[in-house]
Amino acid sequence: MPSSFTTNKSLEQPANGAYVDTWNVPVNADLGIIDKAFGGVTALNATSGSAALTLTQYQALMLSVSGAFSSDVTYTIPAGVGGQWVVINNATTTNGSRIIMSSLGGGTNVVVPLGDQVTVACDGTNFYLVTVVGGSVPTGGGTDAVFYNNGQTVTTNYTIPTSNNSGTFGPVTINSGVTVTVPSGSTWSIV
């Protein structure tokens, strides 16, 4: 019977009786993957455009994006793959383009604005924003935390999580063909 592999990080689960006297082969390989998942960095170059991340790319904890780009760049992971990543957007753009994290499962996406470092999580279909460090969090001079910054254009479909409220500083433009869904019991306030 052949080995099987875990869904999210592709750790090998040897079949009964496999690797007799050579158990170190899958164990050492799996420990390398686990180490990468806790502290590895994958460097991504936004100038190459949107891409489906490979297994070896999305196994790492951190995705560090650099380069200069002129339109939104979407990085996708396979449908059914879940996990948590720190996305560091060190890329540059002259027109406000963004990095978007997406699952081929077709759910919600997370936008990573320039200069931000965000922790995102995916349940195999939907991406969720866990934490943000950078321009989209309260900022201010010294120890002040009084300014909140957000973008002005919605370019990707988004659904506000059920039983949650969202707020945005306006004006806001929703691009043609893009939908913002506000489920029953949720509110989106634009001030």
3D structure, described in words:
The chain is mainly beta and 191 residues long. It has a domain at 150-191. Helices cover 10% and strands 35% of the residues. The protein has helices at residues 24-39, 55-58, and strands at residues 4-5, 12-13, 41-45, 51-52, 62-66, 73-77, 82-89, 99-103, 110-112, 117-123, 127-133, 153-154, 158-159, 165-168, 173-174, 180-181, 187-190. Strands 3-5-7-10-11 form a five-stranded mixed sheet. The chain is elongated. The model has no long low-confidence stretch (mean pLDDT 86).
Question: What helical percentage do the residues reach?
Answer: 10-25%
- Percent in strands: 35-45%
Radius of gyration: 19 Å
Backbone shape: elongated
**Number of E-state strands:** 17
Order of helices and strands: EEHEEHEEEEEEEEEEEEE
Q: Strand order, biggest sheet?
A: 3-5-7-10-11
Query: Poorly predicted ranges (pLDDT <50, ≥5 residues)?
Result: none
How much is the average pLDDT? 86
Structural class: mainly beta
Q: DSSP helix count?
A: 2
Biggest β-sheet strands, sense, barrel: 5 strands, mixed
Distance between the termini: 61 Å
